[in-house]
């Protein structure tokens, strides 16, 4: 996607699944917060922008951002777009470990938009095992099915938020839902390219 949006931009992927594993087991405090802070800061020393793509670890990027605006979390532009959309937001996520960080972020986005927070959580926990075993199609289908069930129960919904970047694969399966469906990868990459001066 970076190549599509900015063909001349260089990109490096730094993947740390052990950080997410630890956050799921123990939360995002103490030593892990320090480790992630150090990792993101080191990347920022070598790059024009750093995009944290993990919703669970996103609060660390937020903590760094005031002192280092090159560090961004991928889901912040997504939540701003959802808060700017009339009606309530259905916030879909797969990992319960992202719940607090995600809901806090969308609540902040509603406040920044001058609105009362108006969102409903749609937990797609059954989908995550598909992701872990590499079944992208099953992952997308499971997410879409749960969102359809939730959307049917929420009159007045204005949009669906696919809160984790990995969930973007479900977006094409929801084109007939009758609601706009937003995901974070493109919005986050666009913000990172702006931060990088691309």
Strand percent estimate: 5-15%
Low-pLDDT windows of residues: none
At the first level of CATH, the class of the largest domain is Alpha Beta
The CA-CA distance between the termini, in Å, is: 14 Å
Number of domain units: 2
Number of β-strand runs: 6
Round the mean pLDDT to the nearest integer and report it.
Answer: 92
Determine the structural class based on helices, strands and strand pairing.
alpha/beta
Summarize the helix and strand pattern as letters: HHHEHEHEHEHHEEH
Biggest sheet descriptor: 4 strands, parallel
What is the correct CATH architecture of the largest domain?
Answer: 3-Layer(aba) Sandwich
Helix content: 40-55%
Shape: globular
Characterization of this structure:
This protein is α/β, with parallel strands linked by helices. The chain folds into 2 domains: about 1-75 and about 185-195, no CATH class; about 75-185, Rossmann fold, CATH 3.40.50.1860. Helix content is about 50%, strand content about 15%. The protein is built from 9 helices and 6 strands, in the order αααβαβαβαβααββα. The strands form 2 sheets. A 4-stranded parallel beta sheet has the order 4-3-5-6, with helices on both faces. A two-stranded parallel sheet has the order 1-2. Helix 3 (about 30-45) packs across helix 4 (about 60-65) and helix 5 (about 75-85) crosses helix 6 (about 100-110). The longest helix is centred in the C-terminal third of the chain and has 18 residues, at about 135-155. The protein is globular, with a radius of gyration of 16 Å. It starts with a helix and ends with a helix. About 40% of the residues are buried. The model has no long low-confidence stretch (mean pLDDT about 90).
């Amino acid at each position: 996607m970076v190549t599509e949006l900015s063909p001349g931009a260089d990109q490096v992927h730094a993947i740390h699944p052990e950080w997410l594993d630890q956050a799921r087991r123990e939360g995002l405090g103490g030593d892990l917060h320090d480790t992630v802070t150090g990792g993101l800061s080191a990347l920022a020393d070598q790059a024009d922008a750093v995009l944290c793509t993990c919703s669970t670890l996103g609060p660390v990027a937020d903590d760094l951002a005031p002192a280092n605006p090159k560090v961004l979390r991928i889901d912040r532009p997504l939540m701003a777009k959802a808060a700017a959309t009339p009606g309530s937001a259905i916030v879909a996520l797969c990992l319960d470990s992202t719940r607090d960080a995600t809901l806090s972020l969308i609540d902040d986005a509603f406040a920044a938009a001058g609105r009362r927070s108006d969102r409903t959580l749609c937990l797609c926990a059954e989908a995550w095992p598909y992701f872990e075993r590499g079944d992208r199609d099953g992952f997308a289908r499971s997410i879409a099915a749960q969102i359809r069930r939730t959307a049917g129960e929420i009159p007045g919904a204005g949009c669906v938020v696919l809160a984790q970047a990995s969930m973007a694969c479900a977006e094409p399966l929801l084109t007939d839902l009758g609601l706009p469906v937003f995901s974070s990868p493109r919005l986050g990459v666009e913000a990172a390219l702006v931060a990088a001066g691309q």
